[in-house]
């Protein structure tokens, strides 16, 4: 790796060739920090001034820019772009080719389907207004190919169907779908919340790793029958 890079990484990391960790930019002020047991695939670049927890798994050709905070046991799959100045909780799984702009916030135990696009600027190149990305609360499940418009909030435990265009807030514990998305009562079969046993194992269809240590930790799904 380039000696000009600046990073700290925990024990038992698996780093493919062709990975760039601690990419410096002009305002760099702190190293990239990644916890133990990380798996990072070839072609990925992660900037300085970013902090990532333990058991992080990163696919091929992922870009994670500066001032990003990512919790423990998160997965970011192939060809995702995280533009910087983001907050992502624990136990989050982001599938392939997802775009997340700055000022987005994502809670714990969230699933984001492939090809989902987050937006943070309502009138790009037309009005010089502050940008504001979406807020995704704990336990949300987002299907593939969803578009999340600037500033929307997806309430805890909500499910957003594939292909939805979300231009207004979605209440907690509801099912939303359509263009524009409308929300409906949560079907009983979906009310259990995202299951830790599906989100947390550090598995890879083409990898040999196996990690069940999450079972020793205190994880529980979001439930619509539990008071906030």
List the helices and strands and how they pair.
Elements: E1 7-9, E2 14-15, E3 20-23, E4 32-34, E5 39-40, E6 45-47, E7 51-52, E8 57-58, E9 63-64, E10 68-70, E11 75-76, E12 81-82, E13 86-88, E14 93-94, E15 99-100, E16 105-106, E17 111-112, E18 117-118, E19 135-136, E20 141-142, E21 147-148, E22 153-154, E23 159-160, E24 165-166, E25 174-177, E26 182-185, H1 196-199
Parallel strand pairs: 1-4, 2-5, 3-6, 4-7, 5-8, 6-9, 7-10, 8-11, 9-12, 10-13, 11-14, 12-15, 13-16, 14-17, 16-19, 17-20, 18-21, 19-22, 20-23, 21-24, 23-25
Antiparallel strand pairs: 25-26
Structure in a nutshell:
By secondary structure, the protein is mainly beta. It has a single domain, classed as Hexapeptide repeat proteins (UDP N-Acetylglucosamine Acyltransferase, domain 1), CATH 2.160.10. The chain has 1 helix and 26 strands.
Model description:
With 228 residues, the chain is mainly β. The protein has one helix spanning 196-199, and strands spanning 7-9, 14-15, 20-23, 32-34, 39-40, 45-47, 51-52, 57-58, 63-64, 68-70, 75-76, 81-82, 86-88, 93-94, 99-100, 105-106, 111-112, 117-118, 135-136, 141-142, 147-148, 153-154, 159-160, 165-166, 174-177, 182-185. It has one domain (7-187): Hexapeptide repeat proteins (UDP N-Acetylglucosamine Acyltransferase, domain 1, 3 Solenoid), CATH 2.160.10.10. The chain is 2% helix and 28% strand. It has a ten-stranded mixed beta sheet with strand order 2-5-8-11-14-17-20-23-25-26, with no helix packed on it. Strands 1-4-7-10-13-16-19-22 form an eight-stranded parallel beta sheet, with no helix packed on it. Strands 3-6-9-12-15 form a five-stranded parallel beta sheet, with no helix packed on it. A hairpin with a 4-residue loop joins strand 25 (174-177) and strand 26. It starts with 6 loop residues before the first strand and ends in a 29-residue tail after the last helix.
